[in-house]
Design goal:
CATH topology: Rossmann fold
Shape: globular
Strand content: 15-25%
Structural class: alpha/beta
Strand order of the largest sheet: 3-2-1-4-5-6-11
Radius of gyration: 19 Å
CATH class: Alpha Beta
CATH architecture: 3-Layer(aba) Sandwich
Mean pLDDT: 95
């Protein structure tokens, strides 16, 4: 099985490529993982790395023609909220136009597509969202990701579209909320934990395995691919502190209204993932078990191994 991962230097793309390379995939004992990067170089022997500017003319067609993948996991995106607000044109290109072109190519045959979206397509006023609920994006990032979903679904109805929320160890060690809590707690830096912002994050390594299972079972359509359990960001930070035996008193409970965040966030992104659990026939990993594995990966030197890939 040949697997192509775009955005392979990002939090999800890198961990997905590593997890896919380590797992027997869909009954195949041997498979090839190819990770695509652009400006961030990646040094690893765990999988093949290709450099490409996917926004360049004919770059996607050339890449797919040369690699001949069976499945493409599209993790490429502009996902930092402030950067999306500052560069809406780039957000449009990466989050909408790129997945549209990719889905159009894949729909011609020869490969299947898993496109990564976000829970942020909702405004967070209600919570317990199911796939049929009407999205209401609150910022440039969310609006472009929703438009990307719609473009993929229109161009390739067989595509898997996964709305995610994730945490884990990243290439630079600064990409996820869990790393932010860990880094500040390790330095003894006081910080705020929002008691009125809820989310359902899944450990990126667990998420990678779930995405691989979705592809292996040949699913199609839109799925909420998050932890079945939710938490406030304050509770998540406190749980992380205790998992690492760090001082949870450094985290002060606060309302998001007390923050200096410039981009509006959705306060209650609690998600229902029953559709996916029924499709897979098994429960999804929750954030609490993911936090334990996050700690175990730290003990095993996993974040240091990732950092070396950036050298």
């Amino acid at each position: 099985m040949r697997i192509l991962v775009t955005g392979a230097s990002g939090l999800l793309g890198l961990n997905l490529a590593l997890e896919a390379n380590a797992r027997q995939y869909g009954g195949y004992a041997e498979h090839t993982v190819i990770g695509v990067v652009n400006s961030h170089r990646l040094f690893t022997r765990a999988f093949e790395v290709k450099q490409a500017d996917l926004l360049a003319p004919d770059a996607l067609e050339s890449l797919i023609d040369k690699t001949q993948p069976d499945w493409i996991f599209n993790c490429a995106a502009l996902a930092i909220l402030d950067e999306c607000e500052a560069n809406p044109d780039l957000a449009q290109k990466l989050n909408v136009e790129l997945p549209r072109r990719l889905a159009t190519i894949v729909a011609r045959g020869g490969a299947r597509l898993v496109h990564i979206s976000t829970d942020s397509v909702f405004d967070g006023q209600d919570g317990c969202y199911v796939e049929e609920d009407r999205p209401k994006p609150m910022n440039v990032y969310a609006r472009t990701k929703l438009a990307g979903e719609q473009a993929v679904a229109e161009a390739d109805p067989r595509a898997i579209i996964a709305r995610v929320n994730l945490f884990g160890w990243s290439l630079a060690g600064k990409r996820s909320l869990a790393e932010w809590f860990f880094n500040n707690l390790s330095r003894g830096t006081p910080m705020l934990g929002f008691t009125d912002v809820y989310f359902c994050p899944m450990l990126v390594n667990d998420l990678a395995q779930v995405l691989i299972s979705m592809a292996a079972q040949g699913l199609s359509g839109l799925f909420h691919t998050t932890s079945p359990k939710c938490a406030s960001k304050y509770d998540f930070g406190v749980a992380l502190a205790r998992q690492f035996s760090l001082d949870d008193r450094l985290i002060s409970p606060a309302s998001i209204s007390a923050s200096d965040l410039k981009v509006v966030r959705s306060p209650r992104l609690t998600m229902c993932c029953d559709k996916l659990m029924q499709a897979l026939g098994e429960p999804l990993p929750d954030w609490e078990s993911g936090l334990k594995r996050f700690f175990e990966l730290y003990q095993q030197g996993y974040p240091q191994a990732l950092h070396k890939m950036a050298r």
